[in-house]
Amino acid sequence: MVLADLGSKLSQTLKKITSASKIDDVFLTEVLNEITMALLSADVKFEHVARLTTSVRTQVTLFMKKEGKYTNMKKIIRQTVVEELTNILNTEKTPYEFKRGKSQVVMFVGLQGAGKTTTTTKFAYHYIRKGWKVALVCCDTWRAGAFDQLQQNAAKIRCAFYGNPKEKNPVTIASEGVEIFKQEKYEIIIVDTSGRHMQEDKLFEEMKEINEAIDPEENVFVMDGSIGQACYDQALAFRSAVNVGSVIITKLDGHAKGGGALSAVAATDSPIIFLGVGETFDDLEPFEPKSFIKRLLGLGDISSLFKTVSDAIPKEKQTELAKTLKEGKFTLRNMKDQFQSVLNMGSLGTVMSMIPGMNSNMIPKGKEKEASARIKKFLYMMDSMTEAELDSLKPLNPSRIRRIARGSGTSISEVSQLIEEYKRFSKMVGKMSNMQDPKAMAEMQRDPKKMMQNLSGAVDPRMLKQLGGAGNLMNMMKGLGNMEGMEGMEGMEGMEGMMNMLGRGGRGGMRGRGMRGRGRR
Ligand SMILES: Nc1nc2c(ncn2[C@@H]2O[C@H](COP(=O)(O)OP(=O)(O)OP(=O)(O)O)[C@@H](O)[C@H]2O)c(=O)[nH]1
Fold this sequence. Notes:
One of its GO terms (biological process) is SRP-dependent cotranslational protein targeting to membrane, translocation. Keywords: Cytoplasm, Endoplasmic reticulum, GTP-binding, Hydrolase, Nucleotide-binding, Ribonucleoprotein, RNA-binding, Signal recognition particle. The protein is built from 25 helices and eight strands. It is α/β, with parallel strands linked by helices. The chain folds into three domains: 4-89, SRP54, nucleotide-binding domain (Four Helix Bundle (Hemerythrin (Met), subunit A)), CATH 1.20.120.140; 104-296, 3-Layer(aba) Sandwich (Rossmann fold), CATH 3.40.50; 302-520, 434 Repressor (Amino-terminal Domain) (Orthogonal Bundle). Helix 4 (73-89) crosses helix 11 and helix 23 (469-482) crosses helix 25. It binds guanosine-5'-triphosphate. Residues 110, 112-119, 140, 143, 146, 195, 250-251, 253, 276-279, 283 line the site of guanosine-5'-triphosphate.
């Protein structure tokens, strides 16, 4: 992800500690200087950097006094850096929490071009996917095209929309839209306002008027993360005009200066709720300071990974799938559910960055889009299948394949590819189920090569290539085993999550305990 530059610089410094022949005060100063340079060049405010380095030195010195030598230095430095950076991002104020069955209004504010309109759509999509009843209101009467942009976005994510290109008064539009959607019992009503230049007092006046008219439960301030320290003044100006409840920072993909935006926003004491990490509607990451910092430092974030995986697969589907697989069946419907889960997880790059030692840059953006486009196409084909076809374990005959291709607007060879993929998946599920046998598992642990063969066989070859091949996958698994924060996680879920994420159909197979045990030894 963005800030990956800062992350990799800091991780390099931490690695240096492991390989150092002599650890003393001089070495500690050198390490702290490197950390300082990395943070400052990522535009983190000097006062934060100074506090962080002082804190690290104090912790290490205390430990040194106690132990009489520099031991565990890497761990102490890492922990203190994580804690101090997390502190920068923790605010006392908590963001608004939506309640089910109640109409709540959220007003989006921000400067021109900050990415507000795109972000309102991402925000709406995030909640629609979680089953909320969401509506969008466009009251940007300033920018030509704003109405069309939001209307089209809303259509793409199948969200209710209100706007009125003939009305010039944004307060009227906002009030009308909110009223209509409240009557229709929408739960989250998102109001997109005009973005203008900061010097324009009129923008702030208009914002206040809309705010008074619709009395939103939450004001979300959208800020362009690529502008570094300038974010600070911006955030303050908006905060003084309306009660900014929370912040979304956009364009954190591909810009190393994001550190500045983060510390600036934190300084205004409004919690960051999401990060915008791309132009598509699922390029929105929920923000959690500690996990963000850990990922930033390349330490991975296993707990978020598990949460993402379990959020993506509805509980009843998990049980249903487990039952089907126990009976040794893997149907096209199961595969459809799995594909849907992979898409629900959002950006694959984001999921990757939650894995220790990996970051989202490991999957080139284009490739990621390619992979999800392929999965979506498969889903269209499966949408054209009958219930009986989805549940059948028998191969589909050519006339059915022809019909499915016609119905889904794809070609016969594409449907055949899907069938091939399905066969590969179900074969793999069969193999994986055998591995539930403890004897087979023990053998696997003795023979890592075999384990690797099975593992890479479970992953879509194209996906495997995108992930850097079988070797990279093995390192990733080792990383999972070594990962801090794995405590309390039963390895089974770990492996299952990974396999689901990578597109392996089905549950059950590779019991993770073995993998995890190996990594820890
Ligand atoms: N790379 C990247 N681009 C983004 C992100 N969010 C928005 N954009 C792009 O930023 C540009 C401006 O986005 P809009 O949503 O139109 O901006 P806006 O703030 O509504 O603009 P105004 O209506 O003029 O205030 C568009 O090209 C978006 O695709 C992001 O997280 N990453």
